[in-house]
Amino acid sequence: VQLVESGGGLVQFGGSQRLSCAASGFTLSRYYISWVRQAPGKALEWVSTIGASRNTASYAESVKGLFIISRDDANNTLFLQLNSLKTEDTAMYYCAKDVKKLGTVVTARQRGQGTQVTVSL
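Below the sequence we write its predicted structure tokens.
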């Protein structure tokens, strides 16, 4: 199982970015797959999850209406469209499998190496 994120970078406040996650060794569409993020000095934060049916997408309140999760089944790739970015969105973003949330504690059994998104004023 391998997850490889890409698409991060430096973006201006209010801008947009599209993150990608290429999966290998398993079929994305058969699992709930998530995006999580971690800002410097902070705990892992759940961002969004998409299930086998694309209609099962869910989002953290902080990104609802701003970020969009999607999946390309033909290419086994997950995406996260980030819109109206704020400085507090600066973090390392990971796609992850087997994410569990217990209150505010988030764990991810499998995740990629991450892609850094930095939002500047």
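The first strand starts at residue 2 and ends at 6.
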